[in-house]
Amino acid sequence: MKIDARKMASIFQDTGLFRVFLIYGENTGLVRERASRLVKKVANSLNDPFLVSVLDKENHDRLIEEATALSLMGGQRAVWIRDATDSLVKPLEQFCSSYLDKDNPANLDSVIIIEAELLSTRSPLRILAEKHPLIAAIPCYAEAGRSLEEIIRIALGKKKISLEAFRYLIAILGNDRTLIRNEIEKLLLFVGDESEIQIDDVEQALGDSNEYSVEDILYAVMTGKMVIADRSFNQGLKEGIAIIALIRGMLYLSDRMNQVRIMMEEDKIPLKTAIGKLNPPVFFKRVDDFAKALNYWNSKRLAYLSCQIQYLEFLSKQSYVPIETLCRQFMLELAQIVHDKKTVATLDKLFSKI
Asked: Measured between alpha carbons, how far apart are the two ends of the chain, in Å?
């Protein structure tokens, strides 16, 4: 059953409504947070070996074995599955059918909590979860707009922050909940007992972080600055940049650019006005680059690019080519395309070589 956002709180209060929880989406930090919360709710622990069974990808074939095992110490068991794939569909159907068989009712008390990354609408696992009465499908989308602002303010607690510093935080933190909290913890440690966080504090504490390197790379690529893109990418690798964060950062940027393009093309809103309508706003130091990028990118090209970025993420987990090499080829090829004003469809040739 697909869970509406308005019903989310009640689901976490009463886990007995379902036997299986599928938690999926691009916001991996939120996926892990919700999965952990459910496991603790079910088993009253995250690491009790008698009550919690964690199955990584290589152990998915043990799903039925673990889900049908009885608790040796009493209490409800949680089977915590990570990196889920569509191969789980058949064992999940088998597990759930035991509860729906009126002639042979199940006496099991296990609850299955599943973590998955972004699943397409055609994913058999997602389709099963959204339709089955015993399975809760809980999507975790990237934080954006007011939701992102609320997450940041909650993480900041009672610490005051200037408007300029707050906007800068929104611009550089990305949209993964776990990363946001980690970076804000670093910022709070840096400012210590200062009464209010200023933009200088954010720049000094986080300005050279991986997230800032990500932004340097993305804007260089999207504006066709090949040399800068290459140099920034190399610097990012030296600093230990998370390649998945880079890929998802590009998807987030392309989506925001597309929002502006649609306002310009369909509502005939001027460029600067359309950029000003974005929420969260574009960081003031990046507005010029954002506008320059839109000289090349229209809504059709951006929609195509979004598909290619998602395919890049898929390849990064399936291809024998190292993820760093794969992403580097993609980014530099894209920068070249923008620089030469070529059609973005030539990216197909890059993927065909991999």
From this structure: 38
CA distance 70 to 76: 9
The upper half-sphere exposure of residue 242, i.e. CA atoms within 13 Å in the direction of its Cβ, equals: 11
> b or e along 128-167 (b: 16 or more beta carbons within 10 Å of the residue's beta carbon)?
bbbebebbbbbbbebbbeeebbebbeebbeeeebeeebbb
Task: Give me the mean pLDDT over the 21-39 stretch.
Answer: 88
AA letter at 37? R
- Domains of the chain plus CATH, in order, are 5-139 (3.40.50.300), 145-206 (1.10.8.60), 210-352 (1.20.272.10)
Instruction: Give the relative orientation of helices 226-238 and 210-222 as an angle to the nearest 10 degrees.
Output: 160
pLDDT tens across 180-220, in order? Answer: 788 898 899 888 888 899 988 887 787 654 444 688 899 99
CA distance linking residue 116 with residue 131, whole number of Å: 17
